[in-house]
Amino acid sequence: MLWIGFLFGIGFGFFVQRAGLCFAHGLGEIFMGKGKRIARYFLLIFVITGTGFWLSGAVSPLLGLKPVGEIRGHGFYNVLSGLIFGAGIALNGGCVLGTLRQIGEGNLSFLVVFIALIPGMALVVYGLNPLLEKGYQAQQVVLPDLLGVPGGVVMGALVLAALAGLKYIRSLKKG
Amino acid sequence: MKNWTDNRALMVAGFAALNVVMYLTIKKFWIGGSSFLPMIGKPGPDNKFLFSFIVNLGVIAGAFLGAVSSGEFRLRLPQNFSRSIIGGILIGVGVTLAPGTCTTAFVTGIPMLSVASFLSAAGIFIGAFMVYGLTWRR
Questions:
Q1: B chain contacts of residue A44, beta-carbon cutoff 8 Å
Q2: What is the pLDDT of residues A29-54, one digit of tens each?
Q3: What is d(CA A163, CA A171) in angstroms, rounded to the nearest whole number?
Q4: Among A30, A54, A166, which residue's Cα sits nearest to residue B12?
Q5: Model-level ipTM above the cut of 0.85
Q6: Nearest of A30, A146, A91, A87 to residue A79 by alpha carbon
Q7: B100 contacts in A (CB within 8 Å)?
Q8: What is the model's pTM?
């Protein structure tokens, strides 16, 4: 199974490199008021992946929409982790995908970032987590369950909104 | 003549489609930060994180192939060690404090409509903008 994962990884890496995809750069572009490119990419990913994940539920009950990660401490630790992660990617100029891509492109600064992940992760896993896990509840929820609305309705509405967003960005480019 | 692999939107679409294909064929999707946990001896339940780690080693190999085939590969030595180390440690803390919800949020979690990913994405925006605001003022 692991070699299949490696082959998929090669495909992901090739697409990411050719797309020049990096959410840290994208956030920087938004900060500079030039966020059209990353917004277009994000909406494109959402439309394709969201529709695909939702439709996969028709293929097998083991597939379909599933929670990714956990809501920890009623969301407090998610926002906090995002905040720290966001600060980290802005500081070194690469998200996880961007870091892997840059290593592949020969930028060894990102190999230093990659190695520096180890003390950061160890600090949380062996230091903070044993203390924190006693103090929070972990939940795994998807948006349709939270809203009490069928997944198809929520996904359909969001995909339509994303398509409208893509059309709007396209009209801005033409203008 | 322009190569089809130079069409960036098409390549983004390819990445997204491959994520769906992987989910449909082997019931696994791309994840980012948690995949590095095997580096500190945590392979995850049923080697879940180890599998993702191998996928992400493949990402490096794939990016290398893409860069070499397009003439974009260039060996660059590390320049700002302190910035890379601090940034890496912060990323390491962020990805493990709420696993599976950072870069993963943008490419897998939000398309899965996972509430944890929406919350993390909100935090990422705030954190990144704070750093951009502080560093770009100088």
A1: 9, 12-13, 16
A2: 888 888 899 999 999 999 999 999 99
A3: 12
A4: A166
A5: yes
A6: A87
A7: 68-70
A8: 0.93
